[in-house]
Amino acid sequence: MPSGLALYTLEGLILKSAGKLMKDNLSWLLVSPEALRRGWLGWTLSGAVARTGGLEVVWAGLVDEPAGRAGLLVFRGEDAVAKLSAAVGSVRAAGSLAAMLGEGMLSAAEPGADVVANLQRFAVSQSDALSLPVGTGAQRSLVLVKPDNFDFPGTRAGAVIDVFARTGLVPVALKVHHMSVAQGMDFYGPVLDALTERFGPEKGRDHWENIVEFMAGSRPSAVPENEHTRPGTRKILALVFEGPDAIGKIRTVLGPTDPAKAPPGTIRKEFGTSIMINAAHASDAPENASREIGIVRVEDNSLKRFVESAAVAA
Asked: Whose CA, among 97, 143, 145, 151, lies 20 to 30 Å from 234?
């Protein structure tokens, strides 16, 4: 588990050790529009992590390609470019991601590539779908792949997304997020009243602070108020899905809050361990989706800003 905020600063992304430049430690993987439409984003994330020995995904978003909206995943780790390039491989390399998905479904930075320059080009075409009105007859749902999926390097986060893909819905926004204490308090504010009513003011507040701590990394009462807005130390992957009955479809594959009561095959049954540590969150109504998307600020995910900061430091 990350030990502090510094691990998630741009400096932490750019330098793994003294004197080693960002372009040697970061790489990217592009999930083609067709692969995204087919629901292969989660599978690709899992495959990339498994085949690279646990590279860490540090930025995620969508970019507009000529063929449509594509998924962009940025990874960090030792020899990231070489490892990720080998993992993607070619359609002729048995066991590679490209061989399993087919020609043109995935691409990655090649050894010797200028990763900063590559990302600068992608930044020009970063998707801004959330600024558009919701389609007629459609809904938006916010999904949070919770921090328990990132406690250890592994394939869980991708596997959770893979289950959401069974709905046939395609994400219109994607973001690696570190929830601040303030965001956690706002996001789970409605839960406090219910917990207080059930357990009383003191125990209810304690349960609520446990939830915020799980999502943000710190308890509200243990952090000075002037530090509440700092990005938290726990990683979350936020996705926004859009389509007909998106709320209902997503909630069906998610399952009930209590994993013990969730049907087999649902995310919370397969990956959850308790009412709080239950793998993922999904909006339960269109108005709540709008509220939650605003709190998490899914739209505030500028690849251009990330690249500019990285290029200066490098």
From this structure: 97
Please identify which of the residues 177, 178, 207, 281 carries the catalytic annotation.
281
Q: Which residues of 157-169 are buried (b: 16+ CB within 10 A; e: fewer)?
A: bbbbbbbbbebeb
Answer yes or no: do 88 and 4 share one domain.
yes
Inside any domain, residue 56: yes
Question: Residue 228 catalytic?
Answer: no
Over the stretch 251-306, which tens digit does the pLDDT of each residue have?
A: 999 999 999 999 999 999 999 999 999 999 999 999 999 999 999 999 999 999 98
Domain that holds residue 87: 1-128+301-314
Token pair belonging to 311: 């290029």
**Higher pLDDT among residues 274 and 16, named by residue:** 274
Q: How many domains does the chain have?
A: 2
Do 219 and 305 belong to one domain?
A: no
Mean pLDDT of the chain: 92
- Phi–psi pair at 264, nearest 5 degrees: -55, 140
Domain assignment of residue 84, yes or no: yes
Residue 166 is encoded by which pair of tokens?
């069974």
**Model confidence pTM above 0.85:** yes
pLDDT of residue 8 exceeding 80, the answer is no
Are 213 and 119 found together in one domain?
no
- Cα separations (Å) of 33 from 131, 164, 281? 20, 17, 25
Residue 157 lies in a domain: no
- Residues 231-243 pLDDT 10s: 999 999 999 999 9
